[in-house]
Amino acid sequence: TEKFLLQSEKLLIAGQLAAGIAHEVRNPLTAIKGFLQLLEHNFKDDKSYFEIICSEINRIETILSELLTLAKPKNMEYKQNDIRQLLEETITLLDTEALMNSVEIKTLYDAELPELLCDENQLKQVFINFIKNSIEAMPNGGSITVEAKQQESNYLQLRFIDTGCGIPEDLLKKIEEPFFTTKEKGTGLGLMISKQIIENHHGRIQYRSTGNGTMVELTLPVNHIDSIKPPRHEHLPQYRLA
Ligand code: ADP
Ligand code: MG
C-alpha cells in the first residue's frame, strides 16, 4: 500500500504543483500585459482585438490567482480563531456585492461556540467561495442563511443555505472537479480549492440541493492538530537516549 498515494496526498501534490505553475506563469503574464498597454495606440483601427486580448489576459489572471490560493502547507498558519468573527468579517467583505444583487445575508449562531484551530485566510477563502456561489445562484435576489453550531464536544458545523437555482442532481457529483463550471465567466476552481482547504483541516463538506436552493454543510474538528501532535514533553517517561 505504500506504493499508492492517498487521495488526499495526491490532491496536496496537485495543489502544490498548480500553485507553483501559477506563480511561474504570473510574472511573464504581468510583463505581457504591461507591454500590451504600451501598444494600445497601435490598435487604433480595431480596438476590439485589443479588448479581446485584455479580457483574455484578465481571465488568465483570475485563474492564476485562484490557483495560488491552493493550500500550500508552508504558508499555512494554524491558530485558535473565533469562528463567529471569521464569518462576520467574510460577510462584511461581501456586503456590497450581496446588496447589489438584492441578496440578504442572515446569520444564526449558537450563543457559545468553541474556538477553532485553523488558518484564518484559507478558511475565509472557503467562506467567500460558498457565499459568492450563492449570490451568483440568485440573479433575481434571495437570501443566504449562515449557521454555526457546535456538534458533540469537538466539532463545529457551519451551513450556508441559499434560495438560489439549485444544482441538478447529475451535476452535483461534478461540482468539485477542477474547471467544472456552469457560468460564462466561472473558473470552476472555487469548490475544488475549498475541498482541498477543508481536507487540510480534517473536515468535510456536503452539498444538498433542490430546485429551491442549495445547502453547503461544513463539519470541522475544533482542534484537528491534537490528534497528530506528539504528546507534550513533560508527559513523556524519562528515558535516556544511549
Ligand atoms: P465557479 O463558481 O467558478 O463556476 P465553483 O467551483 O465555485 O466554480 O462552482 C462550480 C459549479 O457548482 C458552479 O459553476 C455551479 O454550477 C455550481 N454551484 C456551486 N455552488 C452553487 C450554489 N450555491 N447554487 C447553485 N449552483 C452552485
Ligand atoms: Mg465559485
UniProtKB/TrEMBL annotation:
Look up the domain of life of the source: Bacteria
Coiled coil (residue ranges): none
**Domain Histidine kinase per the UniProt entry, residue ranges:** 20-224
Tell me the enzyme class.
transferase
Membrane spanning stretches? none
Q: Has UniProt tagged this entry with the keyword ATP-binding?
A: yes
Cite the EC number. 2.7.13.3
Portion of the full-length sequence here = 119 to 360 of 362
Q: Which reaction does it catalyse?
A: ATP + protein L-histidine = ADP + protein N-phospho-L-histidine
Put simply, this protein is called histidine kinase
Q: Which UniProt keywords apply?
A: ATP-binding, Kinase, Nucleotide-binding, Phosphoprotein, Transferase, Two-component regulatory system
